[in-house]
Amino acid sequence: MTAPLTSPIPLADPGVYRTLLESTRAIPWRIDWATMRFTYIGPQIEELLGWSPSSWLSVNDWADRIHEEDRQKTVDYCVAQSQQGIDHEADYRALTRDGDHVWIRDVVHVVRGEVGSVDSLVGFMFDITARKHSEDKILQLQRELEVLSYRDSLTNVANRRMFDTLYPVEWAKARVTAEPLSIVVIDIDYFKQYNDHYGHMQGDECLRRVAQALDAGASRSRDLCARLGGEEFVLLLPATDEEAARNVAERCRKLLGQSAIPHARSGVGRLVTVSMGVGTIVPGAEDNPDVFMDRIDRRLYQAKSAGRDRICDAEA
């Protein structure tokens, strides 16, 4: 019987375990709980962060090398979990010796003594920088998609979804603060005839230019210009009384007039015009936002019935 070519490695040999640990990308470490000092940290730490293993003496060295924005919450969490004897994980930014930072995931195991008290902490540090960058990119894309979901892709102003989201919020604020809330509903006059004459591509350009004028007219940061659909738009004007709302509507009509968009098939002139319904309310406990919107829609209909190219801010 021939002898084996190699002898089995005695796995009980501590040197073997150390070789295995130090050949991985994960960085092993051990802290003595009584003294709060490192009794071991893998040499891989120097390649990752630039700090030599000999410079990791106590938990203070670990804490000082955590990014200041992550330091307190990370230290507090790890200490609390360790005191309770709970294994845990923590993600944080570790400072490198040259002033940069690396994302670390620290996986911690609590070792108990014979009487059940905490004896030591052992764990592994993992470099998760690439994963974090990927996650950040995904979150950024999700935020961009969320913004796009609230924006009308044709006109680049807010869409119906945005208005439906913000309207009840501004209504509730106005009710609490007893400030007036105004809404302007706008409809482009004879837009079907515009499309029939100029074509839908030119019609889309017309919608974009009208939206631009309306958005410029509602110029405060809290004001919202949204496209409700088709050729209909809305202005949501928080903290705006009747006179100010009328002024905003007039300013929008003036800006649209300055755009001078030709409309050969209009029944009120040779340029694109709009009809507007305007309403203002200080919401009370008995008021209903849907009823208020219906009132403004009726005023828009009145403006159109009265000949278009005008503003209606009162009931007939």
What does this structure look like?
The protein has 316 residues and is an alpha+beta fold. It has ten helices and ten strands. The strands form two sheets. Strands 2-1-5-4-3 form a five-stranded antiparallel beta sheet, with helices on both faces. Helix 7 (191-198) crosses helix 8 (200-217) and helix 8 (200-217) crosses helix 9. It is elongated and about 95 Å long. Residues 179-316 form the GGDEF domain. This is diguanylate cyclase.
Write the layout of secondary structure elements.
Blueprint: H1 14-22, E1 27-32, E2 37-41, H2 44-49, H3 59-64, H4 68-83, E3 88-95, E4 101-112, E5 118-127, H5 129-149, H6 160-177, E6 181-188, H7 191-198, H8 200-217, E7 224-229, E8 232-238, H9 242-259, E9 274-281, H10 289-305, E10 311-312
Parallel strand pairs: 9-10
Antiparallel strand pairs: 1-2, 1-5, 3-4, 4-5, 6-8, 6-9, 7-8
Spatial order of the strands forming the largest sheet: 2-1-5-4-3
What does the overall shape look like?
elongated
Q: Supply the CATH class of the largest domain.
A: Alpha Beta
Write the element-wise H/E pattern from the N-terminal end onward.
Answer: HEEHHHEEEHHEHHEEHEHE
Number of helices: 10
Largest sheet: 5 strands, antiparallel
Helix content: 40-55%
Span of the ends, CA to CA: 112 Å
| Poorly predicted runs | 1-11
* Fourth-level CATH superfamily of the largest domain: Reverse transcriptase/Diguanylate cyclase domain
Q: Would you tell me the overall average pLDDT? A: 91
> What Rg is obtained from the alpha carbons, in whole angstroms?
34 Å
Question: What's the CATH architecture name of the largest domain?
Answer: 2-Layer Sandwich
